[in-house]
Amino acid sequence: METTDDRRPCDQVRVRVPATSANLGPGFDAFGLALTLYDDLIVTPGGSGVTVEVTGCGEGEVPLDESHLVVRSIHRGLEALGATVPGFTLRCENRIPHGRGLGSSSAAIVGGLAAAYGLAGEPVDRERLVVLANEIEGHPDNVAAAALGGFTIAWTEGESGRAIRLGTVDGLAAVAYVPDNRVLTKEARGLLPGVVPHGDAAANSGKAALLVAALTERPELLLTATEDRLHQEYREPAMPESLALVHKLRGTGLPAIVSGAGPTVVVLGRPDGTSARSGKTAGQSSFRGAPPAPDGWTRYDLGIDPVGVQVWSMEAG
Ligand SMILES: Nc1ncnc2c1ncn2[C@@H]1O[C@H](COP(=O)(O)OP(=O)(O)O)[C@@H](O)[C@H]1O
Ligand SMILES: [Mg+2]
Q: Quick one: CA dihedral 297, 301, 305, 311, positive or negative?
């Protein structure tokens, strides 16, 4: 196996790209967290057309032609790199559920763009990856975490997506409660008001700043730091069960938030229930008491992915 640092075209490119949770409560359109749940892509150049095979999430649902989101993203990446690959076979092994707020669209985009770097024989430029992925996705929060890993803060400068990555406190993990039903991001965005009360905006600014501290060094503050007043409640009509679960979990001291545009609910914390500073038990950062998934939901116990999308250029064989 060779890495893409060799800067020459290859026979097969493999990509592993993480699921992501965005917003995290008060960090609307800015905060992202990469999770240890992955889609794998295997791209084999050859021929003159595109063949797509999908197993796992989205199998039998996503298109298998040039309109497939990964294929579109590979083409966009190749175009940006000035590279040409006349044809390829794309195999997708998907584990990130679609339309649930765990960043499946961002994983598809970031994975496709990263594959283009591999096909072009170029090392991945993660800053540029965020710019290109944001252009396709339309908002930078999930793509930033998928590209950089860890906890990311994203913003736009002019039209360009930008992001920084911060490490998370040791042992941080997430429980994701994923319902069987979907909510499309477009639909959830349509429920947000054009104007919000100044007091709500002010409260969110403070909580967003506090959440940076909570995720990086003070997990015992996660419950208060994940309070949101800008988006979650407005989206309640599209996902009443999710808001009910958030309220129930928070009522028992667990820092629960709506993941991205929902309907997945994520609890953040450290499974061992110890605080970062003292090592003493701190209820708010503990998963102790995180209940099993309700009927019609699936519980995923996940870690934080530290590195973001990974690319390997292989000899075919
Ligand atoms: N791995 C994938 N391959 C192809 N298309 C995908 C993939 N992941 C997501 N998509 C497309 O994106 C849609 C889901 O995007 P979105 O509504 O933003 O939900 P999510 O929160 O999962 O990102 C899917 O219905 C599908 O059209
Ligand atoms: Mg999405």
A: negative
